[in-house]
Amino acid sequence: IELKNVMHWKTEMVRFMMAYKFAVEEVSTKISILQQEFQHIHDYNPIEHVKSRVKSPESIFKKVQKKKLPLNLPLIQENIRDIAGIRINCSFVTDIYRVADMLTEQKDITLIEKKDYIQNPKPNGYKSLHLIVQIPIFMSDRVENVYAEIQIRTIAMDFWASLEHKIYYKYNKSIPKALRDDLRDAAVSANELDERMERIHKEVNQLKEDDHLNGNEQKPV
Ligand code: 0O2
After folding, report:
1. Are the C-beta atoms of 16 and 80 separated by less than 8 Å?
2. Residue 135 to residues 91, 132, 145, 172: CA-CA distances in angstroms?
3. Interface pTM (ipTM) of the complex?
4. CA–CA separation, 150 and 51 (whole Å)
5. Cys-Cys crosslink for 55: which of 39, 83, 100, 104, Cβ 3.0 to 4.6 Å?
């Protein structure tokens, strides 16, 4: 293999990974703007935490093998759409849809696919709203439309998913039935907690609104 070919391949690889880093940065900035502006206008923040990552080359390679793709960068770009990943944790289920709308209504974000595992949970109990979006990244000599996956879930859904993810890998992807049943029960409990918290949240806001009408000003929860 010629050195110049190796150097060219390395430059392309770094450029390939950079585009995803920029996509994560763009989406993260958008989320940060929403958080700050929403807080300012409504005196309330629907977003609790945001985590982001760019898939490692090793994980990309594993997915390439799983999907039986050839090692070709444009094909990988088109078929592996979660290399740039952003996870948003909200306090309440209604906030999930509110945040999803605020993001997808932005002109430069193209919604490619929406997977609503909240309306349609996975058989194991997994719940989350997944958005596959495309965002333009303006570089020195071109614009690249980069895919990113935005996962939006409540804190309770995230708690469940993190534990399930650990167990899934601990048992090398085949969880024993008793544990699977336990996890499904835990998912039901997480869902009940979400519903309960949202009910309390609404009640408190109603009380605040009544206070407001009576001229007794207090912050929303
Ligand atoms: P990681 O390590 O989190 O990145 P795809 O394989 O993405 O082309 P798929 O499987 O239809 O297609 O995508 P889906 O259903 O949108 O799931 C993608 C991601 O959602 C996963 O990424 C997980 O992060 C999360 N996820 C989906 N199902 C589950 C689940 O049952 N439990 C948990 N804990 N997380 C889930 P990766 O690449 O699998 O893993």
Report:
1. no
2. 26, 10, 5, 34
3. 0.91
4. 10
5. 83
* Domain regions of the chain by residue span: 3-158
CA-nearest of 166, 169, 160 to 126 is: 160
Has 149 been annotated as catalytic?
Answer: yes
For the segment 4-36, what is each residue's pLDDT rounded down to a tens digit? 777 888 888 888 899 999 999 999 999 999 999
pTM of the model: 0.91
**Cα-to-chain-centroid distance, residue 84:** 10
Q: Which residue has the tokens 């998913």?
A: 161
Residue nearest to atom 22 of ligand 1 (CA): 82
- List residues near ligand 1 (CB under 6 A): 82, 115, 122, 124, 126, 130, 161, 164-165
CATH number belonging to domain 3-158: 3.30.460.10
